[in-house]
Amino acid sequence: MNTTTSKSSISYLLIGSGRVARHFSHYFNLLNISFQTWDRSQDPHALRVKVSAATHVLLAISDGALQGFYRQHLLGHDDKTVVHFSGAHSFEGMISAHPLMTFGNDLYDLDFYQKIHFTLTGASSLDEALPGLTNSYSWIPSAQKALYHSYCVMGGNFVTLLIAKMLSGFATMKIPAEAAHLYVQKVVENTFANPEAALTGPLVRKDVETVKANLKALENDPALKIYEAFLETYWPDYPRK
């Protein structure tokens, strides 16, 4: 991979059409960074032409497609810097620059994009992978990628599922989402302020009767297994009898 290209001659090619590709396209536009795009709806010949003209090829495609795409279209292009955005995987010949952020349907503003932290593997600086971006970054070895990503999933995706479950249950009880929003917002604030002491509720209090009532209320709900998993993890000696 090429790591010595001067900033004045940077030419980006962004591959993909999903959410990550849309957000990076928008971010680059906000920064007035010139780039080309390609996705599967375009002619394969156009891909060869665009790869030839690019210095940096950014693969905003699914994790499962990364290695195959690289081998088919980029293997042997040692003059290109190839970057993917997977948080879980590392591949020979490619830099991993994982944005520690969730990307929804709505695009963000420039100030927000510039606050996103990147986790790098295969490069010592973000400027090597994504010249023109001034975001903060960390480096981790490839052996830690899967563990790093498991933390991302637990702290992001699992939290989303739990909050969505709470909102769904509250909706059936006519409890407003705004009330839940304030509650969750304060939970997150307290956790970042003091993660060791932020947890509240029956698991911290060792409140057997409340936990028993919770489990009873959830006995016909698939979420019972989630509650029991947290109970097993954080209160393994809970007296179940």
What can you tell me about this protein's structure?
It is built from ten helices and seven strands. The protein has 241 residues and is of the alpha/beta class. Helix content is 47%, strand content 12%. The protein folds into two domains: 7-140, NAD(P)-binding Rossmann-like Domain (Rossmann fold, 3-Layer(aba) Sandwich); 146-234, N-(1-d-carboxylethyl)-l-norvaline Dehydrogenase, domain 2. A seven-stranded mixed sheet has the order 2-1-3-4-5-6-7, sandwiched between helices.
SSE layout and pairings?
Elements: E1 12-15, H1 19-30, E2 35-38, H2 44-53, E3 56-59, H3 63-74, E4 81-84, E5 95-99, H4 110-115, E6 118-121, H5 126-129, E7 137-139, H6 145-172, H7 177-193, H8 202-205, H9 208-217, H10 224-234
Parallel strand pairs: 1-2, 1-3, 3-4, 4-5, 6-7
Antiparallel strand pairs: 5-6
Keywords:
single chain; N-(1-d-carboxylethyl)-l-norvaline Dehydrogenase, domain 2; 241 residues; seven-stranded mixed β-sheet; 7 strands; Rossmann fold
Q: How many beta strands in the DSSP annotation?
A: 7
Distance between the termini: 61 Å
CATH architecture of the largest domain: 3-Layer(aba) Sandwich
The arrangement of helices and strands along the chain is EHEHEHEEHEHEHHHHH
Q: Please give the order of strands in the largest beta sheet.
A: 2-1-3-4-5-6-7
Mean pLDDT: 95
Give the helix tally: 10
| CATH fold descriptor of the largest domain | Rossmann fold
CATH homolog superfamily of the largest domain: NAD(P)-binding Rossmann-like Domain
Strand content: 5-15%
Please compute the radius of gyration using only Cα atoms: 23 Å
What would you call the shape?
elongated
Helical amount: 40-55%
Count of distinct structural domains? 2
